[in-house]
Structure formats: C-alpha cells, structure tokens
Design goal:
The structure is a single chain. This protein is an alpha/beta fold and 286 residues long. It has one domain: P-loop containing nucleotide triphosphate hydrolases (Rossmann fold, 3-Layer(aba) Sandwich), CATH 3.40.50.300. It is built from twelve helices and eleven strands. The strands form two sheets. Strands 7-8-9-4-10-11 form a six-stranded mixed β-sheet, sandwiched between helices. A five-stranded mixed β-sheet has the order 1-3-2-5-6. The radius of gyration is 19 Å and the shape is globular. It starts with 8 loop residues before the first strand and ends with a helix.
Length: 286
Amino acid sequence: MSGNSDAPISGYGGGTTDTVLSVDAVSDEAEALGLSVARETLLKLAGAAPLVQIDGLTAGYGKMEILHQIDLAVGRGQSLCLVGPNGAGKSTILHSIFGFTQIFGGHIKVDGVDVTKQSPSERLRDAGIAYILQDNSVFPDMSVEENLLMGGYLLPDTTLAKEAAERVFERYDRLAQRRTDKAGVLSGGERRLLEISRALIMDPKVLLVDEPSIGLEPRYIDMVFEILGDLKDRDGKTIIMVEQNAKKGLAFADIGYVLVSGRVAMADKGAALLENPDVGRLFLGG
C-alpha cells in the first residue's frame, strides 16, 4: 500500500440491518440516483435548535475510516432512526456520539457543547448521553435492583442511585415485581426493559439505542417501542436508534436517515421515507 501509513483507511462500519441487495449494489444504485443530503435539510428536520448536532464527522476504528463527512441533527424530544445496508456505518454513528471511535475530523455537539474530545464517562455524566447496548448487556447473576444500581456508577452518592432505582420501580411495575430476582431469569422483553431502565438512572437527555428489537418475540417488540415512545413523548428524551427492522424503526421515528457507505444518502420524516419508492426498493425489501 502506497502513501502515508498513518492515514485513515477507507472502509465500512458494522451494521445489522438485513441487506436487500449487496452492499456494493446498493452503493452503486444510490450513487446512480445521485443521493445526497444538504446540511440545511437536516437542520430543518431537527427544528429550531438541535439538541444533538454533528458537523463533518469523519470517524472509524484504529486507522479504518468508516464515516465520511457525516452531518446529523436531531431536536430535543425527537427520535431519529438510522437505516441502511450492512456495513453502512449506522452503529458507528452511535459509537462516535458516545465516544467509542477514533475521530479524524468534525465535531459532535450536545446542547451547544462540543463533546468531541470527551470520554464516554464524561459524555454520560456531563452531557447526558446514555448508550443502550444490544441484547445480553445485563449482569445475569446480579438481581434486577443491583443491575439498576450499576447504571448510577458515576453518581457522587449511592443514595442518588437508590432513589433513581425506586423511581424506576414506581414507573415499571413489571420490574418492581422482579426486583430481587436474578436478571438471568428474566424474559427477553423484561431484560430489554431492564437495559433501558438502567440507562435512565443517570437521567440522560439523549438515548442511543442499538437494535432495540433484536432477539425479541413480536409481542415484546411492540412493548419496547411503546416504552421508548413514552420516554420521548412524556419525558422529552431524544432518541437516536439503529434498528434492524427498518419498517418498524421508521414508523416509530420522527426523522429517518438512510446511510450508504458511511454517508447520509437520504433524510426525511420517518413516515415519508416509508412511502419513498427508492427506499422501499433498496432498503425495505419492496
């Protein structure tokens, strides 16, 4: 390989949305359609003052560049769903917002504060960004209550974590009934509720949700989206998610972005993207 060995290497990031066409075929068709999105369009979708704003982000892992000049904007109390083929960089955006990637250029701001150089702990504690991982992130040998308390590990006083846990139990009777049970015996839906609730202990402004429906039975998928919708509508949480079920995710989201090869190829209201024939053909299977 010629050139500077320290330069970022162009590549794809990890994603789990089922591929309708091959990654190369989708990329080629998207390029043929001339798909691109102006920053002004993203800002308009986000409203007057975006809570989370990304400008010109280039990021990846090690020397591998996954995201190429990404812009993003989402308002307070809005939900944004990222869809696209495998390897488009969807999860890499979540990782970048939380501080898990190498940033080669650009800026990430939350509520007007630049968090680009902050650690994940600083982003959780100071900027109010919480990451809800994919399935199986609970501690199976710990009780439901102990799992919740782990969500407050950055709080200055354990009493604050206990008070927050009690608020969770008041809100979700399903967890209150299982508070002394080990998390490993919970159903899939209960585990996902516990994962979401653990993130609430720090009272975050922003929830990064990675594949909320993965591994769940259909009856639990609806429950999880109802919980997320309540957090958005009642509590004003801003939600940025990656969802393998693109139709479900776009139906839930206020805004949808379609990613292709580490770039934002399309952006619109979630409902509008569901009705877009190009999105349906390339990314939704029909």
